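Please predict the structure of the following assembly.
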Amino acid sequence: MQENIVQSTDDEFDVLIVGSGVTGGWAAKEFCEAGFKTLLIERGRLVEHRKDYTTEGKGPWEYPTRTVAENLLVDQTQAIQKQCYAFNDTSKHFFGNDRDLPYSTEPGTSFSWIRANQLGGKSLLWARQTFRFSEYDFTANAKDNQGIDWPIRYQDLAPWYDYVETFAGISAAQDNLPQLPDSIAQPAFELTKPELDFQTSLAEHFPDKPMVVGRCAHLTQPSKIQLELGRVTCQARSECYRGCSFGAYFSTQSATLPAAARTGNLHIAPNSVVHSLIYDDAKQRVTGVRVVDNDNLSQREYRGKIVFLCASTLGSTQVLLNSTSKRFPNGLANSSGVLGRYLMDHNYNAWASARIPGYEDEYYRGRRPTGIYIPNSHFEPSRYHKDFKRGYAIAGGATRGSWQGMSQQDGFGADFKQRLTQAGPWQIWMGAQGEMLPQADNQVGLHPSKKDKWGIPQLHFNCKWSDNELSMMQHAAETMHKMLATAGFESIRSQATTAPPGLAIHEVGTARMGNDPKQSVLNKYNQAHDVPNLFVTDGASFCSSGVVNPTLTFMALTARAAHYAIDQVKSGRL
Amino acid sequence: MTTQNNVILNRRSLLKGLGVVLGAQFASQLVGGSGLSVAMAFQQDSALRQLQLLSERQLKTLASMADLIIPQTDTPGALETDCHWFVDNQLKHCFDSDEQAVATVILNKIDTVALGQWGKAFYQGEQAGQLALLTALEATEDPFTQADTKAFKMLKALVVFGFFTSKVGMTQLLAYDPVPGGFKGSVPYASVGKAYSGGYPF
């Protein structure tokens, strides 16, 4: 990888890509394959595939605290990051340092901002669940008059879903559901016996809530495209958050980066914190980026003909807000004034669990990287619940308990020891993932005085759930409870909670697409209305959160935007 | 690479990281004092071990407890896998001060009750007497309170955690399967015969 590294250079690149996570990696691959001289700018350190997965394959006994992260370190540097489900001693080095990444929240609100600032970004840490948006998602805003209409429809994105799925490798069944379009897929993971019977129970008693196997970016039958990149079948180890040397799940490192690098067109600028974009008032174009060195805080610039902002939803918006000029005093490409507004996340505030009687002779093998999935049944206005608009999906799974659930049981001695070595009863857990409505008041802006160590104004958050989201979670908890009860399960528990937004790590919006330049930052190709050679292709561009996990749509939008830009350049229009 | 080397390597990178965060001077103070020098102190090498939170007497009480909870059978038990040392280290580094106090208070109470009943320390008692005392504690019998039982369960869970995340616990007592090679949704339980040691993050 060293041969790709750039520090200071006077070269003008064909394209500058800010951020190397899922979207930055995709942009790099597409531009490099089209013959563009590409600079991938990453604020964090290099992480090399395999070589830098330093915790992979280690047993818990090799950690002094057996993979539990240590208090002192966490309190001082990662008190926010540790709220993420994937944070522990084996993964903490892929999370940001809160001390370096300060932000503020409006009194009475809270937002947990999870950061992963290294080459590959959150593509190393994501939960890898991959679902397409449906036509219902793209038309929901128009139908129930929330936010603005998406400028694209399912048919615009469908070929790009095909395109990214073929390369990334998605494990899924063909479910033929209108609210959850099928993917081009490799074989689905298997369900366990109790899950299959629960699926039958749901089909009988909850016909509008069919259960499918979770779809995920894991290889189960790698194609030639994937094998050529050194990617092989998922081993079901469940070590994904440490990095995967099998390349079995999609990450920048496993997939898009090697594809980009083999073209010879890829250049990488690590440790390059983008302060702002350089806008030329006369040309009405962006001409480059201002960078502060991550380590020594020195300043440099990179020049390029096109800029793709792929710095994550809030990262990209922060850069735009901080890129001011005579023409754009309130942030680059912000003539509409909506930049920073309509921030959304998914709402995970409802869960349910139960014990499944029987199946003592049943077990499974391996640690499955996905689970059961029950798509949203409230996917069009005629199916909305009276108490809320939009809806939620349910994800979960059934497994057998172990010593972890029995460690507080009564007992001593050899019998107790023996009991703990046996698999416990089957248990099922389910959680809701609810849509969040786009609201102008849910927003981020630059703090008027506070800056981070690179001299970049901090983000200030003002974001909270509305009654719509709270009602939805109540309904979700009750519905899951009913599903479990109807199936004959025992010891059922369910709860709606009120954790603040952020922790779904599905933050989207704040630089939305739209047909009307007065109401949106980006056009239907993720191109800034105000600045033709500027594109934002990460979650910032979303007009609504939809119900499903957003990453597959990040990929499809990025690939589509990159090909649009490439075509525009080739035809002399950009 | 040996575990010992890993520990040293971890310690180095940890200190390096902290040097950046806190400034080298503060980091070196931590190393010199009671802060970071102990962060990696749960050594596999028992000769290098130092008490973290507990007193020597409390550690002995804990060791006797751990031995009763998970004894040596045809496989090693909690003592052979140094679970008492692990619990001491874990309490210090992964629990807050309130929880630490709960742990030390119940260890002291166990010892005090033993002294009152037998005229000697808990760890010096006969195993039958120790077991009777802990059984009474687990059942919240006089002189123990519900809070005592809860405190004991916290320590018991930590002993169990220490044991089943040790190499012996994971690889000898449970079905250790670090690279399953894929996922099968249904296999007969009898073909495995015991619980998997796996399940994220294990």
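Chain B has one domain: 3-197. The two ends of chain B are 20 Å apart (CA to CA).
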